[in-house]
Design goal:
This protein has 15 helices and 12 strands. It has 478 residues and is mainly α. A 3-stranded antiparallel sheet has the order 1-3-2.
């Protein structure tokens, strides 16, 4: 089709989609618009490239394109997502500004208040001698060093015995060495905002799928997308549609009724070493725990003491600036009461209250995030066994034993049964009963699609580039 014909078919298809509630087959599209079957297939592929779509297989073996109740452009964000982005931006701006304030207030004011207190106790003797403040420059420098892009990624084990990535601070002037323990400033920032987490590559899933396709003869099923990223089958259906357009693949229905993506173009490589990202299955990517500070109890106590000291001292300055001015003048530090009220009263008092308030306000969200992380990691441990069983039925007790044998903290049986029941509808699982009434869990689709994909790869002949027929770098003689 030429461009004008394609635009005409696309326009007609878009008119019909609301009437069909966004669900349409190529035959539906051809009948509704009057365009040829091949024309609407091409147009549906183009629509799938523009709008979010799920692919489903009907009993007759047809592909059902589900664009939802309303068309949503790929990459476009919902109102909730936009509000979330705005919230994250504001939070990031607040953390940057407050970290600067922390460096000034907590450390510098603490030092200033200690100097003032000593001066009061000694009655005006010289207390400045021997105090060196050059280290403050390093504190400000730390504010820019303590972020994901400037930290090294290492590995740690959480309380469940599961290995995960974590960020470690790089030693000053030694970029190849990481600190054994966190420096004080990082501990202070973490006390307020929590420790930084490893950055997530927004194209990590795409790179991983590309690497998988090159390794696995250009074949992809929705079950394999589940294994790669832990998506539910509904989510994997949307992703399959996206990758078919992104990587120029073709959707095919096998004789077993399994939707398979074939990505021949992605196999045409000049260098097999250019394989894309690293393939790491969902259950090998455990998430790092969400913690309040990541500091030791002693370090948290010291930080709380510093801020508590500032809070009490600033409260005294705020409540009685005139009296404090007289005391300070007797100690050899003459300052106006108004100056004391604002600079040593209002400002540090406000800061100290916020310093303690932010962790308290963070606590509920950290608790919820950690609970969700625990459930996601439990899902990983369950899915590993589900894929290893490949459709064979198993009991909760058998699953419990397998997870225990794999190592790490073992969840209790009741928690495991609840997690299994929650997974069933999302991964096309079902339950059945043995003769004695024991509940069996079966994930037929997982086993079926794994076997079909294995069979398809066995008979698959991967395309190659062939011989080079023309090279612009070669000289020719006329």
């Amino acid at each position: 089709m030429n461009t004008s014909d394609t635009e005409l078919v696309l326009r007609d298809l878009r008119k019909q989609l609301p009437r069909l509630k966004g669900r349409i087959t190529a035959a539906d599209a051809s009948a509704a618009t009057g365009h040829s079957y091949d024309a609407v297939r091409d147009a549906l592929d183009e629509l799938m490239n523009i709008f979010v779509c799920r692919l489903q297989v009907t009993e007759s073996g047809e592909i059902l394109y589900d664009f939802g109740g309303s068309l949503r452009r790929r990459g476009s964000k919902t109102l909730r997502e936009r509000l979330g982005d705005a919230g994250r931006f504001l939070w990031k701006a607040f953390t940057i500004g407050f970290k600067l304030w922390i460096t000034v207030m907590l450390v510098v004011y603490f030092t200033a208040f200690v100097v003032i207190l000593i001066a009061m106790l000694l009655g005006g003797k010289d207390t400045k001698r021997g105090i060196k403040l050059g280290w403050i420059a390093d504190l400000f420098a730390d504010m820019f060093r303590i972020r994901g892009a400037r930290m090294a990624v290492g590995y740690a084990v959480d309380s469940d015995g599961l290995r995960h990535r974590e960020l470690r601070q790089i030693r000053r002037r030694q970029p190849d060495v990481t600190e054994e323990n966190k420096r004080l400033v990082q501990s202070v920032y973490d006390f307020v905002f929590g420790p930084p987490r490893p950055d997530f590559d927004p194209f990590a899933n795409e790179k991983e799928v590309a690497a998988w396709l090159r390794r696995e003869k250009g074949i992809l099923t929705m079950t394999e997308l589940v294994a790669l990223a832990g998506w539910t089958y509904d989510e994997a259906s949307e992703r399959m549609a996206e990758y078919l357009t992104r990587f120029k693949g073709d959707a095919d229905i096998t004789e077993d009724g399994v939707l398979i993506g074939r990505f021949d173009r992605l196999l045409l490589s000049g260098d097999r070493a250019a394989g894309g990202g690293k393939v790491e299955l969902f259950w090998d990517e455990y998430e790092a725990p969400y913690v309040m500070t990541g500091n030791s109890t002693g370090r948290n106590a010291f930080i709380a003491f510093m801020n508590g000291f500032n809070l009490l001292f600033s409260l005294a300055m705020f409540s009685s600036p005139g009296g404090m001015a007289i005391v300070m003048e007797n100690a050899g530090i003459p300052l106006a009461p108004d100056f004391i009220h604002v600079v040593f009263g209002i400002v540090p008092l406000l800061f100290s209250v916020i310093f303690f308030a932010v962790p308290l306000l963070r606590f509920p969200s950290v608790w919820r995030a950690e609970r969700r992380r625990h459930l996601r990691n439990l899902r990983r441990r369950i899915l590993r066994i589900v894929f290893e069983e490949q459709g064979r039925p198993f009991t909760a007790a058998q699953l419990h034993a397998r997870i225990a044998a794999a190592g790490g903290k073992v969840p209790n049986l009741k928690e495991l049964e609840a997690a299994l029941a929650a997974l069933l509808p999302y991964f096309d699982g079902r339950t059945t009963l043995e003769d004695d009434g024991t509940v069996l869990y079966v994930f037929d689709r997982v086993g079926h699609e794994v076997q079909v994909a294995r069979r398809e790869r066995t008979v698959r002949q991967t395309p190659g580039l062939g011989k080079v027929l023309f090279d612009t770098g070669e000289s020719t003689t006329l």
